[in-house]
Specification:
single chain, 429 residues, mainly beta, 1 helix, 34 strands, 3% helix
Length: 429
């Protein structure tokens, strides 16, 4: 949907699926022979051209629509296009896709909207945009240190874009290695690896890993690829240094067939991804919706609202990953999760709650209620002072962790009458 403002100063466009609103503007074309007139000169010119002392013209006879059709004043092909294209001024709202938000190194919020990547600086109240994608963005991720972000498009031949998360300057364009669009992206904790999940050979879900030996991604290259036995992938996560003896990459969702695991652990060995030893207990708790690695464990959220902990059961079972704990987390499903730097995990659910968990014993440390809309994505800043959450209503919430207060922001410009909207928040220590 596209609409002009009443005075045609701005153009607003709304996405059909991402529910984001973009505000565009264009300065009027002023050429050397068509200089603009000020108000007084325009009024004087209009007065000189107006008929004076003439009787009103007689009423014309009623004409049919055929009589009112006139030939064009000039050849339509000779009309020049505007010299300046519309310039994007502001993006309102966030997409409702999963895990499409993160914090950059300067504390700003970075997220994908349509075919754009947006970085919002709350202190300066400004946005910068990356418009290098030609198709809507299908997967988005921000590195743990907030230095880089990655974006994949709904296109099988589109490269993987690595951007500076603060300025959104393109750092690298990595060639595609999948036969379908990327559906999940994740950075490793060290920031030297990035992985993607999509459709590969034989329509199988495939994990691809790229690496940057220097860590600045100017030398980024494909490292390894391997299929995973999943029918649908809901999350992708890198293991931490404490998980290195057990696994390096894990993916989860819905198993490829009845009786196959819904979560797959992989080890990165040179240029190969090999399956890790896994002990899958009987009596699964449903498909997985989210997962994140904290400390030496994977915390995975299920469709039934449970939060599971997967890790090495003991030193005697080194390298064998199994489920060691399970707690009820959310009503209607635990839909998203992110890790902090202090062995804590933040989850969001379909019940509208955002909860902070202790990784060691899966105890709730804090919880915040953002409204009735399901939470689709969560992220926390480097110091764990703020938590950003996106909802199914295309709103971006930001929670101040030490005060327990939350507000929903559509990120409008200051002159817009729609400002921050206070929401309900609860904290239970």
């Amino acid at each position: 949907m596209v609409r002009f403002t009443p005075k045609s100063d701005f153009l607003a466009s709304a996405g059909e699926t991402d529910r984001c609103l973009f505000q565009w503007s264009r300065k009027r074309n002023v050429g050397p022979e068509t200089a603009s007139l000020d108000d007084e000169a325009a009024a004087a010119l209009a007065a000189s051209l107006a008929p004076v002392g003439l009787a009103p013209p007689p009423e014309a006879p009623e004409a049919t629509w055929k009589d009112e059709v006139l030939p064009p004043s000039e050849d339509p092909t000779a009309v020049d296009a505007p010299a300046r294209a519309p310039v994007l001024q502001f993006a309102y709202g966030v997409p409702t896709t999963k895990e499409s938000v993160g914090y950059n190194a300067k504390g700003g919020v970075a997220y994908a909207a349509g075919r754009l990547v947006v970085a919002y600086d709350g202190k300066a109240h400004k946005q910068v945009f990356y418009e290098g994608c030609t198709k809507p963005i299908s997967a988005f991720a921000v590195s743990a240190d907030g230095a880089y972000c990655a974006a994949g498009e709904w296109d099988s031949v589109a490269p993987l874009k690595i951007l500076d998360a603060c300025t959104l300057v393109e750092v690298a364009s990595l060639p595609p290695r999948l036969r379908g669009a990327m559906t999940r992206l994740a950075f490793s904790p060290c920031g030297r690896f990035v992985a993607a999940v999509g459709t590969g050979f034989g329509q199988a879900q495939t994990v691809c890993v790229w690496s940057s030996p220097r860590g600045d991604w100017t030398d980024g290259a494909h490292l390894a690829s391997a299929p995973c036995a999943l029918r649908a992938c809901a999350f992708l996560a890198f293991g931490t240094a404490a998980c290195a003896s057990a696994f390096d990459v894990c993916v989860g969702g819905v198993g490829a067939a009845v009786g196959t695991p819904d979560v797959v652990f992989l080890k990165l060995r040179g240029r190969n991804l090999v399956a890790a030893d896994t002990c899958v207990p009987e009596g699964g708790l449903g498909a997985y919706l989210c997962g994140v690695c904290c400390g030496d464990a994977l915390l995975a959220g299920t469709q039934g609202g449970n939060l599971e902990k997967w890790t090495q059961k003991s030193a005697a079972h080194a390298g064998l990953v199994t489920r060691v704990a399970c707690e009820t987390a959310h009503g209607g499903g635990a839909s998203c999760a992110t890790a902090t730097t202090e062995n804590r995990c933040v989850t969001g659910g379909a019940d509208g709650w955002v909860k902070v968990w202790a990784t060691a014993d899966l105890q709730i440390l804090n919880s915040y209620f953002l409204g009735e809309a399901p939470v689709r994505g969560v992220a926390c800043d480097l110091k764990f002072l703020r938590v950003a959450a996106t909802t199914a209503k295309a709103l971006l919430h930001e929670v101040v962790t030490d005060s327990g207060k939350a507000c929903a922001a559509a990120l409008p410009p200051r002159r817009c009458p729609v400002l921050l909207r206070r929401g309900r928040a609860r904290s239970c220590a």
